[in-house]
Amino acid sequence: MSEATHRAAVAERAARAGGVVAREAFRTELTIETKQSPTDVVSNADRDAQQQVLATIAQEFPAATVICEEDVSTVGAGEVEVAEVVPETGPAWVVDPIDGTANFVREIGFWATSVAAVVDGEPVAGATSMPSMTDIYTAGPESVSRNDEPMTVSEQTNPDAFAVGTTGRWSTSDPDTPAEIVRAVTEHFGDARRFGCIQGLLALVAAGGMEAAIMPDPPNAWDSLAGVHLVRRAGGRATTLSGERFSDGDDALIVSNDTRHEAVLDAAQQALS
Hints:
Oligomer: single chain
Largest sheet: 8 strands, mixed
Number of strands: 15
């Protein structure tokens, strides 16, 4: 087994393991705290799932470098080394134990446990587990799949048939931006949708269920890298608002099936200009 294949297998195993922990806590009594806003929440399930993900990675890669959404000091890092940003050189793991926690605590089943394996700043494998949907999306050096079946992005070319996801936090201090994004999408495409789980939305684009997605705020690595890798491996495209190749949270994230990527960019630029 090659090193890249090994990392892909561990990413999938870790995402599955963290997802199992989160699924066991789903729709049970939770301890919920807020972070930066009343809708930016974290639960005990996030921390427990993160601990399981880290333990699974450490079994195969002791002293691995990890970048996590939740504060590792509250759960213990175990045998891993915690970094604040994705390193430019060397291997690392990027972990989101529950992406879509706001959905999770409201007992809405669209949430994900996501793990990316990164080498020299670029994802080489990604896994997004969506236990409530009974789906696992994976991408490694040899395959990209949903539930072990090969997947590709949508082949749709007609913008009037496009379903475009919008994502990012609503803000009472800036109500115009999300409104303008929805306006631009509905003017240019057939359908606009908002799911409340970035990694889940990226997985849907990779699997062909959605044609594109617009994320106006620069995403954190744990919100984006696994899903971006899924989209690219499935034949799609992920860029910044200016059309440059997206890397690690340096700008807005625009993804598509790559049949009308410029049109998606135009809509996003119209909304965000």
